[in-house]
């Protein structure tokens, strides 16, 4: 099952049109996004990791006057971001190997980080710490408990994985983050399990 994690990049490249067409725009994430933004300074530069086509997450962050850099492994989805939001900075890249010259005031990985394998997640959390300025906010979604799950996008199997909450807490602490909140299966957010943390000064 774990080998399916290697298919994620090609799935979102080959099925970009379908995914973008069916991605909900109701902004059920708004309450969490607002909490995230309260932890960022007013002129925060935010890194949207796995930004997809930019709607609705990056669109909302931009509408709140924030500077957004989006990174996604799907070139077709990044092209949509550039067409829709030319005021942003959009890059094709893999979150497992992303590098930037300067850190950010906010990092968000909504419904993207959980596509990585267990070991890749363990390696990327320290990278979050390197990409976050002191005081920066970090928000990402996971599963409510340790395990793997398989969804579908068109005719392809879509891999998801989650570490145990205790392991996320340990990884985040060692990467320099304090946990602000963790809500598993949040009923007010479509059942998403959401982590909100802040980089220690």
Description:
Keywords: Methyltransferase, Transferase. Its EC number is 2.1.-.-. It holds the Pfam family Methyltransf_25. The protein has 201 residues and is an alpha/beta fold. It has a single domain, classed as Vaccinia Virus protein VP39 (Rossmann fold, 3-Layer(aba) Sandwich), CATH 3.40.50. It is 32% helix and 32% strand. The protein is built from seven helices and nine strands; from the N terminus they run αααβαβαββαβββαββ. It has helices at residues 8-14, 16-22, 30-38, 57-63, 75-84, 118-131, 165-174; strands spanning 45-49, 67-72, 89-92, 104-109, 132-142, 147-153, 156-162, 177-186, 192-199. It has a seven-stranded mixed beta sheet with strand order 3-2-1-4-5-9-8, with helices on both faces. A two-stranded antiparallel sheet has the order 6-7. The protein is globular, with a radius of gyration of 16 Å. The termini are far apart. 39% of the residues are buried. The mean pLDDT is 94.
Compact description:
With 201 residues, this protein is α/β, with parallel strands linked by helices. The chain has helices at 8-14, 16-22, 30-38, 57-63, 75-84, 118-131, 165-174, and strands at 45-49, 67-72, 89-92, 104-109, 132-142, 147-153, 156-162, 177-186, 192-199.
Under CATH, the homologous superfamily reads Vaccinia Virus protein VP39
Percent of sequence in beta strands: 25-35%
User: Measured on Cα atoms, how large is the radius of gyration?
Assistant: 16 Å
| SS class | alpha/beta
The CATH class turns out to be Alpha Beta
Helix amount, in percent?
Answer: 25-40%
EC number: 2.1.-.-
GO biological process, one term: methylation
Keywords: Methyltransferase, Transferase
Pfam families: Methyltransf_25 (PF13649)
């Amino acid at each position: 099952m774990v080998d399916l994690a290697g298919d994620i990049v090609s799935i979102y490249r080959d099925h970009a049109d379908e995914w973008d067409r069916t991605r909900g725009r109701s902004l059920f994430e708004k309450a969490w996004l607002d909490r995230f933004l309260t932890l960022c300074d007013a002129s925060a530069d935010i890194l949207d990791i796995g930004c997809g086509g930019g709607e609705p997450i990056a669109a909302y962050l931009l509408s709140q006057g924030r500077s957004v850099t989006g990174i996604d492994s799907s070139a077709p989805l990044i092209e949509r971001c550039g067409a829709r939001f030319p005021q942003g900075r959009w890059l094709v890249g893999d979150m497992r190997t992303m590098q930037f010259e300067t850190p950010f005031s906010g990092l968000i990985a909504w419904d993207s980080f959980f596509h990585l394998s267990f070991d890749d997640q363990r390696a990327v959390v320290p990278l979050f710490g390197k990409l976050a300025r002191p005081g920066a906010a970090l928000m990402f979604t996971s599963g409510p408990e340790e395990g793997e799950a398989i969804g579908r996008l068109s005719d392809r199997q879509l891999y998801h994985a989650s570490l145990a909450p205790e392991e996320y807490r340990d990884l985040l602490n060692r990467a320099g983050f304090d946990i602000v909140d963790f809500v598993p299966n949040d009923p007010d957010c479509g059942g998403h399990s959401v982590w909100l943390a802040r980089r220690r000064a």
